[in-house]
Structure to design on (177 residues):
């Protein structure tokens, strides 16, 4: 297998790194998760993917899995009309809460899989590093197009076309048969 390189080469990640993965694998992980959680950042509002917004992928993902969404930054307003189960929380605050293995967003049990989408690369890297070391009860996934070595699962550094294909494959796995 080829050497996996983080998008920012100054990213020092240690011996345990993310499994490079594809959209269908993330879809199966989501299907198997008992208490998944989706955390979205402001970049979901900026990315345009072949005429479709990253925001629309996130909404479809959440609706197809009924996964609760934590909106950060200024994403609450664009997401609020979508009928999703939304909570507003800061990125640092949610990272701190996720370290606690007994914390629950809804009082029904802690998350077992946390998916990150649309968060600034450097900030997401630090959040994932914290969770990798201090929240070993969680599995983490980065949906963004740049490899995040501190996640448990991440796409490789992808051009936009291949990234969109992977997001489409992820959604395809989640559609009812």
């Amino acid at each position: 297998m080829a050497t996996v390189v983080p998008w920012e080469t100054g990213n020092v990640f240690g011996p345990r790194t993310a499994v490079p993965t594809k959209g269908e694998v993330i879809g199966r992980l989501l299907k198997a998760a008992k208490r998944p959680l989706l955390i979205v950042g402001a970049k979901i509002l900026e990315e345009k993917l072949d005429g479709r917004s990253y925001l629309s992928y996130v909404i479809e993902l959440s609706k197809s899995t009924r996964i609760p969404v934590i909106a950060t930054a200024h994403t609450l307003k664009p997401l609020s009309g979508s009928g999703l189960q939304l909570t507003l929380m800061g990125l640092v605050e949610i990272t701190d809460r996720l370290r606690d293995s007994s914390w629950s967003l809804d009082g029904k049990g802690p998350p077992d899989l946390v998916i990150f989408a649309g968060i600034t690369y450097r900030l997401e890297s630090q959040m994932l590093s914290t969770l990798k070391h201090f929240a070993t009860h969680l599995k983490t996934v980065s949906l963004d197009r740049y490899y995040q070595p501190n996640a448990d699962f991440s796409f490789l550094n992808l051009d936009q076309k291949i990234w969109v294909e992977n997001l489409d494959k992820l959604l395809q796995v989640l559609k009812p048969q």
About this structure: The radius of gyration is 15 Å. Residues 9 and 42 are 23 Å apart (CA to CA).
